[in-house]
């Protein structure tokens, strides 16, 4: 059901974001191969990290297998850094240190609600710090099959977009996936 041109955010329409399950060994193997997990575990506080990683499907700067990232913020739950190919005036990614592949693995309840809320708060703080005069801020997640890295990551953008094509990547496509606004995701995860 569509509400104002978007998927109905009510709990009865929760099917688009299902609580996925992974066996413990599959989760461990996925985390070991995940470039964002490597970053979260090896990024020095307040600096630039260069990691050896053999993949071209990264969302980060890499050269001959070397990955380079400048961290913007970190705490016990999340790491934030600049997107390697920014779509907007300012474009950061906030990732949880825990390996969660996509929004489909988030479960309705306090734990994941609190995590997404913390990611949003971190991103909002960065945007207001680094782009206080932005026209608009956007916060959201890509949903499969439109996610480029299988590690949950919040896109935090200070608009305007660099081009109309870049803006197209951040449109919600209803039940087909696309992009989901962080506040809409929080509504779907809320138990109250």
TrEMBL record:
<feature type="domain" description="HIT">
    <location>
        <begin position="58"/>
        <end position="166"/>
    </location>
</feature>
<dbReference type="GO" id="GO:0047627">
    <property type="term" value="F:adenylylsulfatase activity"/>
</dbReference>
<feature type="short sequence motif" description="Histidine triad motif">
    <location>
        <begin position="151"/>
        <end position="155"/>
    </location>
</feature>
<keyword id="KW-0547">Nucleotide-binding</keyword>
<keyword id="KW-0378">Hydrolase</keyword>
<feature type="active site" description="Tele-AMP-histidine intermediate">
    <location>
        <position position="155"/>
    </location>
</feature>
<dbReference type="Pfam" id="PF11969">
    <property type="entry name" value="DcpS_C"/>
</dbReference>
<dbReference type="InterPro" id="IPR036265">
    <property type="entry name" value="HIT-like_sf"/>
</dbReference>
<protein>
    <recommendedName>
        <fullName>HIT domain-containing protein</fullName>
    </recommendedName>
</protein>
<dbReference type="GO" id="GO:0000166">
    <property type="term" value="F:nucleotide binding"/>
</dbReference>
<dbReference type="InterPro" id="IPR001310">
    <property type="entry name" value="Histidine_triad_HIT"/>
</dbReference>
<dbReference type="InterPro" id="IPR011146">
    <property type="entry name" value="HIT-like"/>
</dbReference>
């Amino acid at each position: 059901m569509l509400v104002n041109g978007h998927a109905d955010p009510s709990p009865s329409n929760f099917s688009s974001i299902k609580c996925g399950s992974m066996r413990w060994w599959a989760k461990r193997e996925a985390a070991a191969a995940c470039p964002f997990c490597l970053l979260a575990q090896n990024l020095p506080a307040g600096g630039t990290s260069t990691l050896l990683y053999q993949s071209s499907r990264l969302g980060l700067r890499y050269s001959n297998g070397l990955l380079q990232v400048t961290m913007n913020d970190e705490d016990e739950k999340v790491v934030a850094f600049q997107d390697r190919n920014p779509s907007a005036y300012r474009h950061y990614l906030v990732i949880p240190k825990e390996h969660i592949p996509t929004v489909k693995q988030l479960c309705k309840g306090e734990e994941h609600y609190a995590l997404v809320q913390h990611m949003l708060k971190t991103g909002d703080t960065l945007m207001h710090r680094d782009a206080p005069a932005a026209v608009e801020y956007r916060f959201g997640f890509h949903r499969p099959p439109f996610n480029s890295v299988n590690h949950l990551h919040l896109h935090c953008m200070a608009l305007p977009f660099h081009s109309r094509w870049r803006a197209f990547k951040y449109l919600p496509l209803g039940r087909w996936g696309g992009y989901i606004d962080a506040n809409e995701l929080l509504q779907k995860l809320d138990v109250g």
